[in-house]
């Protein structure tokens, strides 16, 4: 029984349908049927009962299934080790990213990564920090890119960038300076995340540290809705640099440095304590770090 036959057998065992198994292993239905019949003929056994409700594994198949799973896992472990030793990343990579990071830089980072490493199958999941930490613990994502206001002992974190918060408003809003001081924030209709949001907590803490208060006009967690609102003259928001759009919306908006207080957040790569960042993830992280650095330099010009 070769590796291909094991894959077909496992797919049919789990799907209990020739059609679904064929779709899963990306072949036509007769290919799956032919290989299963060949196994049964070569070893003179019957593995499945064909019924009106599907293809049902019998007792022999149930004993064979865990052995095939183990064999396939071992083969993949060998292949992965060889790829890592060769320095060529090739694997499935599932990344969790905070919503604010995906707004601007992440799209170009992914395009650059895919063009340079087409052999890596990458998936991106977007969520808030709490979602990302939950997905890490559940094994849904391999690592997360998120911001932390303080050390989370449940995670192993590697800093990748310090990202400033900026003030963003319509280009038609009257503001002549190249920065916005915290004391003048209330000149605008301010939009912030709701209380309990990590970014909101950071803003509140830093304003209180310098003895300032402010009063949000609206509290909105959805970045898409925030952009709709601040497109109106007189409205503004505080957001991380990575959230400032690079698409057509940028033409209608202006960004300003926030001063007194200047607020920054730390972006980190987070994994579980017993897990290291894979070889395939390292160039993705490097591209993200460079993109944030470039965006920061553009803001300072």
From TrEMBL:
<keyword id="KW-0805">Transcription regulation</keyword>
<dbReference type="InterPro" id="IPR005119">
    <property type="entry name" value="LysR_subst-bd"/>
</dbReference>
<dbReference type="Pfam" id="PF00126">
    <property type="entry name" value="HTH_1"/>
</dbReference>
<dbReference type="GO" id="GO:0003677">
    <property type="term" value="F:DNA binding"/>
</dbReference>
<feature type="domain" description="HTH lysR-type">
    <location>
        <begin position="1"/>
        <end position="58"/>
    </location>
</feature>
<dbReference type="InterPro" id="IPR000847">
    <property type="entry name" value="LysR_HTH_N"/>
</dbReference>
<dbReference type="InterPro" id="IPR050950">
    <property type="entry name" value="HTH-type_LysR_regulators"/>
</dbReference>
<dbReference type="InterPro" id="IPR036388">
    <property type="entry name" value="WH-like_DNA-bd_sf"/>
</dbReference>
<dbReference type="GO" id="GO:0003700">
    <property type="term" value="F:DNA-binding transcription factor activity"/>
</dbReference>
<dbReference type="InterPro" id="IPR036390">
    <property type="entry name" value="WH_DNA-bd_sf"/>
</dbReference>
<keyword id="KW-0238">DNA-binding</keyword>
<dbReference type="GO" id="GO:0005829">
    <property type="term" value="C:cytosol"/>
</dbReference>
<dbReference type="Pfam" id="PF03466">
    <property type="entry name" value="LysR_substrate"/>
</dbReference>
<protein>
    <submittedName>
        <fullName>LysR family transcriptional regulator</fullName>
    </submittedName>
</protein>
<comment type="similarity">
    <text>Belongs to the LysR transcriptional regulatory family.</text>
</comment>
<keyword id="KW-0804">Transcription</keyword>
């Amino acid at each position: 029984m070769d590796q291909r036959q094991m894959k077909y057998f496992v797919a049919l065992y789990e799907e209990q349908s020739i059609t679904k198994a064929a779709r899963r292993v990306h072949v036509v239905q007769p290919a799956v049927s032919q290989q299963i019949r060949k196994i049964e003929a070569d070893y003179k056994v019957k593995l499945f009962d064909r019924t009106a409700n599907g293809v049902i594994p019998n007792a022999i198949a149930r004993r064979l299934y865990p052995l095939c799973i183990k064999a396939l896992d071992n083969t993949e472990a060998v292949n992965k080790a060889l790829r890592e030793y060769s320095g060529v990343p090739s694997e499935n990579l599932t990344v969790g990213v905070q919503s604010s990071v995906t707004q601007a830089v992440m799209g170009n980072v992914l395009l650059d990564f895919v063009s340079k490493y087409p052999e890596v199958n990458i998936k991106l999941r977007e969520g808030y920090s709490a979602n990302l930490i939950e997905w890490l613990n559940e094994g849904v994502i391999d690592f997360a890119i998120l911001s932390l206001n303080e050390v989370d002992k449940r995670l192993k974190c590697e800093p990748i960038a310090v990202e400033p918060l900026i003030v963003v408003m319509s280009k038609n809003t009257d503001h002549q300076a190249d920065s916005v001081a915290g004391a003048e924030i209330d000149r605008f209709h301010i939009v912030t995340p709701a209380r309990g949001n990590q970014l909101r907590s950071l803003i509140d803490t830093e304003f209180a540290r310098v003895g300032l208060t402010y009063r949000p006009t609206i509290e909105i967690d959805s970045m898409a809705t925030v952009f709709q609102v601040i497109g109106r003259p007189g409205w503004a928001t505080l957001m991380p640099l990575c959230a400032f759009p690079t698409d057509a919306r940028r033409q209608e908006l202006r960004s300003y440095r926030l001063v007194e207080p200047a607020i920054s957040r730390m972006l980190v790569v987070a994994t579980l304590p017993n897990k290291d960042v894979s070889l395939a993830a390292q160039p993705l992280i490097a591209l993200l770090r460079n993109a944030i650095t470039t965006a920061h330099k553009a803001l300072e010009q």
